[in-house]
Design brief:
By secondary structure, this protein is an alpha/beta fold. It has a single domain, classed as TIM Barrel, CATH 3.20.20. It contains 13 helices and 10 strands. Helix 4 runs parallel beside helix 6, helix 4 packs parallel to helix 13 and helix 12 packs across helix 13. The two termini are 20 Å apart.
Length: 319
Amino acid sequence: MRPASVRSGNPIAPFVEGQGIMMLDGGLATELEARGHDLNDELWSARLLLDAPEAVRQVHLDFLAAGADCIATITYQATVPGFRKRGLSDHEAVDLMRYAVQLAVDARNEFWDDPVNREARLRPLVAASIGPYGAFLADGSEYSGDYDIDDDTLYWFHRVRWHVLADSQADVLACETIPSRREAMVLLRLLGESPGRWAWLSFSCRDETHLCDGSPLAEMARACDAEPELMAVGVNCVPPSAVGRMIDELRKGTTKPVIVYPNSGERYSAAAKAWQGAPPEIDWDDASAGWAERGVSGVGGCCRVGPETIASMRRRLVG
């Protein structure tokens, strides 16, 4: 199956046209955790903006060196209310979110300034990560979408961070691990408030054909299809074994580029706030080649997928 046709101006277009696919990065937060940083905190990875920003920049660099064409900022769980609970002012919270983007931009620029890194490469993108409301709650509800708030409250929660990141140096916005139809529609509304801004929307799912709230994946892809500046639709933090079927479901509803970045296949316990069980045996090279054959335009990894795996998939998919 050939990849979807890509609208002119879409930031993913040069990668699809030039090398067949865009390589995303892997799990930024879990890679930091693997390097010894404690993320057992309501801010999760965003705490390292306060405690260890240089470590964040280094992981960005390592994913770029591994072959990522796009790196995501450490803003997934960074919100004004979250930083406010830590005792920061709203102004300080906004400055930290801008700083997160700057860390990624600086890493990308440092990488690109080396002529060696430009050989057979396109200039990588920086995606400003926007996680779901459930990430702020830090109770695992990003994997259910079961929020005890109305749609207006959900809209105003997202609006502040959205416009901070939309006004930043990021190349695109990455709406990630979105568990429900209503949260997706709120984010699409905000995209409509940002003319000229490109974003992607990636869902979390309870099974191969449904979002976490039960909405059909194909139906949600159809709802996204009419948004002109939505650059791609996809799934993330899902088991690798489910990705093939999910691609087929997305394809039923959209002609937009499809991106996939699954986790390592382990099960996350919201109660224990830990990954449980041994990771399944996955041949990431063969798996990613199968996803490419199904027509995806972007491939990467989410939680517990590190630079080595990204490098291996790039060698298989891009050369």
